[in-house]
């Protein structure tokens, strides 16, 4: 496994018409491209993840996991705006010589996909055997399969949608309200908005899990408590944990990027856009997902030609897409088996793993 930096030599034009100079994208690769160049697995990461997929999706990706570097050439790119090596609001603006902060231009899911495509060209990847993503990552993978349908042979979409819902946008706006209520957010400092980011993460967690998950994991052992509850401590802990590894400016922009997701924009319709997908497609829903309810995944499967829908019963809500890796691997294995004639190379590698 290794991390690299792709430096785009030209000025990158965003969907909005705004431009970024000296764009840099951090990315990880695992394994090697085979002679036929047909063993590429491309991972699109979610909101606050990084390009080290072995770190945040273990059980599905790892040296001995379903997708492993012995059989596949695995690529995961850190998205624009994310503070894990790619150009982001804390990066130096070449025009001013100062960090961007709030002047960083807003970008869309389509901009993230455009950069994936540039990186794939840079790596000499013409065909992607399988593209996969969950949540914001699934939005990217779907948009890519629509924008460049001949490049992706197989597509796995987990806990994602065709257009970000009013419910999801409302959650994101509530988080941005929390960040904006922190006056330090407007101070243009690396730790600006830290308290607001902590509160935003607390709000987000409520959409990632759910009533029953909190009831099981944060319930008090005693009936006598009147304060200092486990659930309160958990919210503080998770908020502080994110503050230590992220920044409020990136979070603000990336939630807006998620809100921008609509495959029907500047196309005939959402349904028509989904019909452009040529990849063999597996759509996976999480039964208890509050943020991306299963109706959204069923809609994808109903409108992507030949798509297969699978549902995982999970205790963890939306976070199930990160935690139910054994079940996700089983669903992917069965899906690829059904498309064996079209997936000879990838299926042979899977056969070897099972044997």
Automatic annotation (TrEMBL):
Gene3D superfamilies: alpha/beta hydrolase (3.40.50.1820)
GO MF annotation, one: homoserine O-acetyltransferase activity
Annotated Pfam families: Abhydrolase_1
Entry EC no(s): 2.3.1.31
Catalytic activity: L-homoserine + acetyl-CoA = O-acetyl-L-homoserine + CoA
Any one GO BP annotation for this protein: homoserine metabolic process
Amino-acid biosynthesis as UniProt keyword: yes
Pathway listed: Amino-acid biosynthesis; L-methionine biosynthesis via de novo pathway; O-acetyl-L-homoserine from L-homoserine: step 1/1
Top EC class for this record: transferase
Major site of localization recorded for this protein: cytoplasm
Subcellular location: Cytoplasm
Residues engaged in binding substrate: 201, 319
AB hydrolase-1 domain ranges (all copies): 40-312
Active site: 135, 289, 318
Keyword terms, alphabetized: Acyltransferase, Amino-acid biosynthesis, Cytoplasm, Methionine biosynthesis, Transferase
Cellular component GO terms, alphabetical: cytoplasm
NCBIfam families: homoserO_Ac_trn
HAMAP family on file: MetX_acyltransf
Function according to Swiss-Prot or TrEMBL: Transfers an acetyl group from acetyl-CoA to L-homoserine, forming acetyl-L-homoserine.
Family statement: Belongs to the AB hydrolase superfamily. MetX family.
Subunit structure, interactors included: Homodimer.
Official protein name in the record: Homoserine O-acetyltransferase
Organism from which the protein derives: Parapedobacter koreensis
Lineage: Bacteria, Pseudomonadati, Bacteroidota, Sphingobacteriia, Sphingobacteriales
